[in-house]
Amino acid sequence: MGLPNVGKSTLFNAITKSKAPAENYPFCTIEPNVGVVTVPDDRIDRLAEMEKSGKRVPAIVEFVDIAGLVKGAAQGEGLGNKFLSHIREVDAIAMVVRCFEDANIVHVEGTIDPIRDVEIILTELCLADLETVDKRLVKTDKGKKAGDKDAIAEYDLFHSVQKILQEGKPAISLPASPEEEKKLKELSLLTRKPFLYVANVSEGDLADISKNKAFETLQKYAAGHQAICLPISAKIESEVAELPEEEAVQFLADLGIKERGLHAIIRKSYETLGLISFFTAGPMESKAWTITRGTLAPQAAGKIHSDIERGFIKAEVYSYEDLMAAGSTAKAKEAGKLRTEGKEYVMKDGDVVHFRFNV
Question: Contact, 51 vs 281, CB < 8 A?
Fold first, then answer.
């Protein structure tokens, strides 16, 4: 998401290789465009080769491209609340911020100023959240007046959120216990979601990003809000998307760019959401599974099938590195690299697992 004409749809089209309209005027993207992309991870390829798998199934990320937001969206300006309702359904917000000069592409605010642009968006999101919280407080107030202990605790929590939002701060800046977090999730607050700042820079800036002062400013802002900021050139990404893989790699190398923006966005999206991957591998298929960091083995098993979680007995685990070093599961097992883990095992990124269960 972002203001109009910052390069959202151009970037979205490039990373999903889809054809969302991308014209030089606001509100070109009327309905949210959804694109599903695979997570680049060569571990799944190497596992599939080792196991001679018939199929390889990478993890996926779903991107949603939403219409440009303008001042007053919370009060119905532009596409208003229709726009804001689409954001409530996502897990994190990638805020695309314009950090390039181009006289041929108008900026809705007239000048390039990343912090002003971010604060316009945050203000609208805070105002929308404030409306949600105000309505909930009215409902909760009845229980509070009746002396209901749960309602009193809920009212106090939502009142704290209201105060934060009135100060123009996002709801994510309010610390909450696990129990309070459950209550806050019921509200689907826009500003309680984690943010990833994507600076759209000119193609000449990527090889030496230190030249771009607008990016530097945005990066400092993001760091001050415990958020990730990465530079992307939507123009380069759109050109790379049209090329075969080998040509794309060479094209980026010629420009002094080490990694595709798509790969960087997915990696940073995972980091922002606290996600990791574990793998299952065998002759039928090798597959990557996405879980939240800190997930226990039975819940990870539940990602594959609820029966496996319900009847969980143990997890037989190799680390990806150990497996690759050994060259096969048999050799890794001989070397004592197979671990048997129980219900309290916290899954690690790169675990290659076989779950034992009984239902």
Answer: yes
pLDDT at 39 exceeding the cut of 90: no
User: What's residue 204's pLDDT?
Assistant: 83
Closest CA to 46 of 258, 262, 325: 325
Q: Report which residue type is found at 276.
A: I
Beta bridge partners of 200: 98, 232
Bridge partner list, 229? 197
- Do 8-120+193-272 and 294-357 share a fold? no
Q: For residue 135, how far is the Cα from the chain centroid?
A: 28
* 294-357 CATH fold: Ubiquitin-like (UB roll) (3.10.20)
CA torsion through residues 195, 196, 197, 200, sign? negative
- Token pair listed for 135: 């309505």
Q: With contact defined as beta carbons under 8 Å apart, do 152 and 140 qualify? A: no
Position 161 pLDDT exceeds 90:
yes
User: Mean pLDDT score of the chain, rounded to an integer?
Assistant: 86
Torsion of Cα atoms, 11 then 13 then 17 then 18, to 10°: 160
CATH 1.10.150.300 is right for the domain spanning 123-189:
yes
CA distances from 114 to 120, 158, 197, 350 (A): 10, 31, 10, 37
Answering whether pTM is above 0.85, one says no
pLDDT at 105 over 50: yes
Q: Is residue 282 helix, strand or coil? A: coil
The strand pairing partners of 286, in sequence order, are 56, 281
What pLDDT shows up at residue 70? 59
Locate the domains of the chain by residue range: 8-120+193-272, 123-189, 294-357
Burial class (CB in 10 A: 0-12, 13-18, 19+), 187: middle
- Per the CB < 8 A criterion, the answer to whether 187 and 133 are in contact is yes
Nearest 10 degrees: CA dihedral of 40, 205, 242, 103? 140
Helix (H, G, I), strand (E, B) or coil at 242: coil
Question: For the purposes of burial, counting CB atoms within 10 Å of the CB of 258, is it exposed (0-12), middle (13-18) or buried (19 or more)?
Answer: exposed
Tell which CATH classification among 3.40.50.150, 3.30.565.10, 3.40.50.720, 3.40.50.300 matches the domain 8-120+193-272.
3.40.50.300
Rounded to 5°, angle at Cα 234 from 229 and 240: 120
